Amino acid sequence: MPSTNFYTAWRCRAKTLTILPTRNLAYIVALLAILCIVAGYLGMLIYFVIVVLGVLAIMSAIEIASLPRASDVDASRSVPRLEESELAEVKLHVQIKDDAARLSKRAHRLMIQDDAPPQLCAARNSIATNAEQSGRYSYQVSPKSRGNVEFGDIHLRVTGPLHLFWAQFKIPAKTPVSVWPNTRLTTDKHAALQKALRLEGARIRHFGIGLAEFAHIREYAQGDDPRQVNWFATARRQTLMRNVYEPERGQNVILAIDCGRSMAVMQNAGKTRLDLALEAALLTAQVAFANGDEINVIAYSNEVHLHLSHLRGKSGMRQLIESTYDLTAHIVYSDPHIMADLVYAHHKRHALLILLTDLTDLSTNDLFEQNIRVLEKHHTCLVASFTDEALEEAITKEAGSFAAATKVAIAAGLLNDRKSYRDRLFSRHIEVVEARQELYTEALKAYVRYKNAAR
After folding, report:
1. Which residues fall within 8 angstroms of residue 452, CB to CB, at 6 or more apart?
2. Whole-prediction pTM
């Protein structure tokens, strides 16, 4: 299980040292070459070249002697807990040993290059500054996707006081880190979540149907269901009282996440369908845990990649995040038959089965309909799918040529097949919801309906 420490730090000493000429040295050599041409024209070439080469050799010797050795340089990197789309600050600490025999290091020039993973969208991970005995530097990263990434080595370049040569150091620091999904809701998502739950809660509160347990008694208010009036309490208190019921706690929810090839498609805002499906799963689980319910998770493609059972409370949420943060889509056709067999074998208790998948791929699998007939006898089944943006855009384009008309016809045929398959599932009383991006609101509505629907 990956570490969840807030800061992860590595410290290592430089292993390699390379001496490289700087741009200043190239300028000096070019200037001396011009002076040599002038001296040759004046007939003093030999004496001038000897003096120039001697001075250049002395300057180079002083410069190289003042450069730090590989054993004198070490560096460390501290990385905070990384969350998707959240800014984080990576800190670098460079230390150069002090040596009185060398010239002052304050005259040195330091360049730092950190090999940050491209998935982190690092801002200015190259730093140029004046070198001191020790220094702390930092740059910001913004991870664009969850999963495992790896930082590379730290590269340092230090000049001498004359800025003629670079001492280039390579400090081994290859270490994997984890990018966790961002569980914080944005303002828009939070508003949509509250709206969905409020609308569903109002329906439940007014009608008071379904599996519920007695909570407490309170005074009757305008708009309450008269069927919930408690006449014994009313007679004792001499005022109208009513029973308050809460949805039954400890119910079961199964989240089946498709990790097949179609879930690798970029849906919107740079996120894949699998990323959005995981977001919907995490938000649904968060609400279910708050209601005291039990979550089971299955991730599958042509095989089962993850199976978590009996998750509850904060520990269950933590385990869910740690187990799903590095899920990736596999370039294979998904086999829902494997998922159905696992549900049938290990989950006998009645549950809400939310299948987060792509309906187009599902419609090509004849086995799923056979398995869903078995599953629907024991569970409440919901298929949550993403709309196919490419097909929807294809049928809206003008068919100016035969090739364009063929594309429109193919896209329309695929969408019709998708619709007919959705209608077949509806006829079997299997709810199907589709969304372009925010699938979690539909999944939450289905969860609330399940919590209060009589079976």
Report:
1. 204, 209, 210, 211, 212, 247
2. 0.69
- Domain 7-180: CATH superfamily, name plus number: Immunoglobulins (2.60.40.10)
Burial of residue 240 (number of CB atoms within 10 Å: 0-12, 13-18, 19+): middle
Q: The dihedral of CA 326, 144, 90, 174: what is its sign?
A: positive
- The predicted pLDDT at position 3 comes to 40
- CATH number of the domain at 252-452, out of 3.40.50.410, 3.30.450.20, 3.40.50.970, 3.30.70.2760? 3.40.50.410
- Domain spans in the chain, listed from the N-terminal domain onward: 7-180, 213-247, 252-452
CA dist., res. 55 & res. 61, Å (int): 10
* Cβ-Cβ contacts under 8 Å for 27 (sequence gap 6 or more): none
Across-strand partners of 111?
128, 157
Q: Which residue from 171, 163, 156, 170 is spatially nearest to 21, judged by alpha carbons?
A: 163
- CA-nearest of 176, 91, 183 to 140 is 91
The pLDDT of residue 184: 66
Contact of 342 with 332, CB cutoff 8 Å: no
One-letter amino acid at 73 equals V
* Alpha carbon distance 150, 144 (integer Å): 14
Q: Cβ–Cβ contacts within 10 Å for residue 395, how many?
A: 16
pLDDT recorded at residue 211: 47
d(CA 368, CA 75): 56
Residue 91's identity, in one-letter code, is K
Residue with tokens 């989950």: 347
Beta carbons within 10 angstroms of residue 188's beta carbon: 9
Sequence-distant (6+) residues with CB within 8 A of 366 are none
Q: Which residues of the chain are under the pLDDT cut of 50?
A: 1-7, 100-106, 187, 202-211, 454-455
pLDDT at 411: 79
Beta strands in 301-365 (DSSP E): 304-311, 352-357
The alpha carbon of residue 74 and the mean position of all alpha carbons in its chain are separated, in whole angstroms, by: 32
**pLDDT the model gives residue 427:** 79
Q: Using CA atoms, how far apart are residues 378 and 411, in angstroms rounded to an integer? A: 36
